[in-house]
């Protein structure tokens, strides 16, 4: 089971980025975001408090935020619990911060990350050509938080 708490700088000492995500030379750029994100959480295994992920939400302007996620290889076997906790945190913070749209940007060359974004409930929106540090395209996916009244359509239910 995965639990979360607010991020602390010392969490980085207990975290190792997934091998496939080390494709980019500067994963440390994401790690720097942990200190400046609007809100950042550490995801851990409940049984031993092993750090398996870090998730941050950056408010870009009123009502719009970008989420970023770093996952450790230690998260293997925790997929369902990890995914549910990420969704819970996004919905919780969207309500708290009045966020109506959350987007995530993933390297189009890493198919597993795109698949996981879809599992989280994100929908493909567009691509940025050659925008990744390695020259790959970057895909933008959007998430509509539960419990938010969008005005242009009925409120998305908070029921599971």
What does this structure look like?
This protein has 160 residues and is of the alpha+beta class. It has one domain: Aminopeptidase (3-Layer(aba) Sandwich), CATH 3.40.630. It is 23% helix and 31% strand. Helix 2 links the parallel strand 4 and strand 5. It is globular and about 40 Å long. The protein starts with a strand and ends in a 17-residue tail after the last strand. About 6% of the residues have low confidence.
Low-confidence region ranges: 23-27, 153-157
SSE run: EHEEEHEHEE
The helicity comes to 10-25%
CATH superfamily: Gcn5-related N-acetyltransferase (GNAT)
Beta-strand segment tally: 7
Our measurement of the CA-to-CA distance between the termini, rounded to an integer number of angstroms, reads 18 Å
Query: Major sheet, described briefly?
Result: 7 strands, mixed
Widest β-sheet, arrangement of strands: 1-2-3-4-5-7-6
Give the helix/strand class: alpha+beta
Tally of helical runs:
3
Strand content: 25-35%
CATH topology: Aminopeptidase
State Rg. 15 Å
CATH class: Alpha Beta
Assign an overall shape.
Answer: globular
Work out the count of structural domains: 1
What CATH architecture do you see? 3-Layer(aba) Sandwich
Mean pLDDT: 81
């Amino acid at each position: 089971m995965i639990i979360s708490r607010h991020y602390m700088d010392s969490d980085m000492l207990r975290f190792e980025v997934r091998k496939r995500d080390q494709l980019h030379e500067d994963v440390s750029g994401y790690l720097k975001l942990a200190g400046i994100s609007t809100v950042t959480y550490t995801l851990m295994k409940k049984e031993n408090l092993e750090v398996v992920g870090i998730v941050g939400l950056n408010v870009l302007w009123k009502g719009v935020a970008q989420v970023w996620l770093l996952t450790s290889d230690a998260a293997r076997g925790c997929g369902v619990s990890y995914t549910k906790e990420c969704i819970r945190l996004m919905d919780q913070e969207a309500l708290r911060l009045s966020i109506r749209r959350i987007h995530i940007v993933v390297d189009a060359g890493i198919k597993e990350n795109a698949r996981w974004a879809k599992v989280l409930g994100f929908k493909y929106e567009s691509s940025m050509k050659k925008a990744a540090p390695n020259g790959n395209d970057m895909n933008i996916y959007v998430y509509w938080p539960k419990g938010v009244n969008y005005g242009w359509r009925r409120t998305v239910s908070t029921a599971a």
